[in-house]
Amino acid sequence: FLNENAHGGACCVTALINDGNLVVSNAGDCSAVMSRGGVAEALTSDHQASRPDEKERVEALGGYVDCSRGVWTIQGSLAVTRGIGDGHLKEFVVAEPETRVVRIESDCEFLILALRWVVG
Predict the structure, then answer these.
(1) What average pLDDT does range 38-62 have in this prediction?
(2) CA–CA separation, 85 vs 45, rounded Å?
(3) How distant is the alpha carbon of residue 95 from its chain centre?
(4) In the chain, count of helices (H) and strands (E)?
(5) pLDDT band at residue 120 under the 50/70/90 scheme
(6) Residue 7's pLDDT is what?
(7) C-alpha–C-alpha distance, residues 33 and 108, integer Å
(8) Order of strands across the sheet with 12-18?
(9) How far apart are CA 110 and CA 38, in angstroms?
(10) Count of C-beta atoms within a 10 Å radius of residue 6
(11) How far apart are CA 91 and CA 67, in angstroms?
């Protein structure tokens, strides 16, 4: 995105199975959810500007986070704090994902990888 001077950005979620482990990573507002014994278990947490640790990270870099019309944004522009692209906010929007490793057990039924899509 940045090398091509592309405008905008993207969020992502990935899953990898290796040696009986499920490795999930996300950057932005994508989600990984596992059904374990009939119960949904969130494996990721969205990187939203309203998240206290993400707000603190952005502000420590000299950015600002505010709420306008019920939506938390960084620099009054973007609601996610991690993603790929968004060059005009790159000093605050990082592409570094959060990663979690889960051992696959017999009660692990299926995995859902999803993008949160908000129209409004």
Answers:
(1) 95
(2) 20
(3) 9
(4) 1, 10
(5) very low
(6) 76
(7) 11
(8) 12-18, 21-27, 98-103
(9) 10
(10) 13
(11) 20
Tokens 């950057």 identify what position? 27
Residues 109, 44: Cα–Cα separation, whole Å: 17
Q: How far apart are CA 14 and CA 25, in angstroms?
A: 5
Q: Which residue has the tokens 């994902």?
A: 97
Look up residue 109 and give its two tokens.
């039924």
Reported confidence tier of residue 26, pLDDT bands at 50, 70, 90: very high
List of residues 6+ apart from 18 with CB closer than 8 A: none
Token output for 8: 């905008």
Give the pTM: 0.83
Provide the residue type at 100 as one letter: R
